[in-house]
Amino acid sequence: MSRRSPRPPGARLRLDLGNGIAIGPGKADILEGIRETGSIAASGRRLRMSYKRAWSLVEAMNAAFREPLVETRRGGSAQGGAALTPMGDRVLDTFRRMETRTEAAIADDMAALRACLPDITPGA
Question: InterPro entries given for it (predicted)?
């Protein structure tokens, strides 16, 4: 599900791919929302992001990668929309797999750091 608020404690993976190209949770969430809703606008709304901002991120990703990640169709609500291309599916799936592996790799260290925090009793 694209709406991940609030995010659980843990690492936030942001990848700098070189030449000013980066992908992180925000761009991945936009792609996931498009996959699930078929719409850039709906994906942005789920993330409480303006359509202009969501569209800007899609344009940036489409320009950055060898092939576009998102394809759009004009035509309004009845016929328009957006979908991930095969490259978009590949990029999103690879990023999500990297997030999962990162969380697993640092789980013991995260537990050790959390053990250094004071106990907080809910409602106290």
Answer: Molybdate_resp_trans_reg, WH-like_DNA-bd_sf, WH_DNA-bd_sf
Pull the structure tokens for residue 23: 């992908």
Enter the DSSP assignment of 69. S
6 preceded by cis ω (within 30°)?
A: yes
Tens-place pLDDT, residues 28-78: 999 999 999 999 999 999 999 999 999 999 999 999 999 999 999 886 656
Q: For position 31, which CATH number holds?
A: 1.10.10.10
Structural domain includes residue 26: yes
Q: Write down the pLDDT at residue 9.
A: 74
Asked whether residue 124 is domain-assigned, the answer is no
Model confidence at 90: pLDDT above 90: yes
Provide the 10 A C-beta neighbour count for residue 122: 4
Based on the structure, what is the number of domains in the chain? 1
- pLDDT score of 83 more than 50: yes
The structure tokens 């599900």 sit at 1
d(CA 50, CA 14): 22
Give me the domain span that covers residue 40. Answer: 15-115
